[in-house]
Amino acid sequence: MFTGLNVWLSPLASLLVHLFVGLCKNPQDRIYPNQFTPEALIRGLAQNPEGAFFWSELGSTMDQWSKKYAADTMSLMTDLYDNQPFSRRLTGELITIPGSSVSILSGCTHQWLRESVKQTDITKGYYPRFLFVQAQGRTKYLPITPSIDQRIYNSLVEHIRKIHEGIPEKYRQEVGFGKIADTYGAWYTKINQEADKSGDETRISFVQRLTDYAKKIAILVELASHDRDPEITAVEISPESMEYSIKLVEWLHVNTMRVIAQAVRSEISELEDRVLTFIRQAGSQGVMKQDISHRFSRDKAERADIERALETLIRGELIEKVKVKPKGRGRPGSKFIFL
To answer: Which of 99, 105, 128, 163 is most buried by its number of CB atoms within 10 A?
Structure first.
């Protein structure tokens, strides 16, 4: 299972690196180098097929992949996603990877996505393999990053260790979905029908992968929910685990489409871009409509341009319009919040 996990919060990224090291018996074998050629990656995965990349900046890594010697890397990583046997002949030697489980944890900015991600990168299937988690603005300023709470850290490590190591090897081979076939099937059909009706190729590409993640997350939820009898060799997904997973994936779906909408929108005016930046900088408190008008318009014609810009951003699910009740007498107002 290739798990693309794109987390935009560096403190969380740091914590997950520590967790990974704490879980692994030989972490030096499970943390892959940040710079590599496709050939070196294949040879490395043949020896250690389960591990993770921790990239501080997704942009710098992807820029390296654009170089001639690494041009095949993106398609290679895409092929490895499906955890199928993989073979390639290198300098006369046949290298075989029976099945890989590679995770990526990284971060990037909206600006980099906007400047670098192409529509073809999405339709070819690379970015839909990532789970996007977007920061909703700063609520605190930390000039010095606090140290990790060791008690919470140790508890989390042990909880994840129970999933990772407490299951016999044969146990991982048998997963039953009989109890949730109807629930998952109905949701799967609904979310795919909605994507198909939209005619949006980007949405369709992401939905296809997110439905796979729903099953994977349900397995993790089930394994973490309670202790298991070691004599039982199959995992049977419960309705509760699948319902929890579906709720999480639906949140990821909305969140992902907001991120990607900003990255690949092909035609956005300079005014729309400036208005979006202004609203985003306000964070979760949002910006009143009159403040936007005062900032960007000087006459009636410019106010009409502002209205059109706001409507475009709302349709693109980049901002949300919220009604605001007046403190005293007067008409209710409107404010806009970055999504």
So the answer is: 128
Residue 108 in contact with residue 132, Cβ under 8 Å? Answer: no
Cα 208 to chain centroid distance, Å, stands at 14
Same domain, 139 and 1: yes
Question: Above 50 in pLDDT, residue 3?
Answer: no
How many Cβ atoms from other residues are within 10 Å of residue 151's Cβ? 8
How many domains does the chain contain in total?
Answer: 3
DSSP 214-270: HHHHHHHHHHHHS---TT---EE--HHHHHHHHHHHHHHHHHHHHHHHHHH-S---H
> Whose structure tokens read 């501080």?
56
User: What is the SS3 assignment for 182?
Assistant: helix
> Cα(312)–Cα(270) distance, rounded to whole angstroms?
13
Q: What's CA 333's distance to the chain center, in Å?
A: 34
CA distances from 251 to 131, 258, 272 (A): 11, 11, 26
Residue showing tokens 């089930």:
222
Single pTM value for the model: 0.65
- Contact predicate 338/276, CB 8 Å: yes
Same-domain status, 283 and 261 = no
State how far Cα 13 lies from the chain centre: 13
pLDDT value at residue 292: 87
Residues 6+ apart with CB under 8 A from 238: 179, 180, 222, 225
**In a domain? residue 322:** yes
**CB under 8 Å to 329, separation ≥6 — which residues?**
none
* 259 and 285 inside one domain: no
From residue 139, give the alpha-carbon distance in Å to each of 281, 288, 322. 12, 19, 20
* Domain extent at residue 208: 166-266
Q: Are residues 104 and 43 in the same domain?
A: yes
Check if the beta carbon of residue 201 is closer than 8 Å to that of residue 266: no
- Cβ pair 14, 112 in contact under 8 A: no
Q: Is 127 exposed, middle or buried (0-12, 13-18, 19+ CB in 10 A)?
A: buried
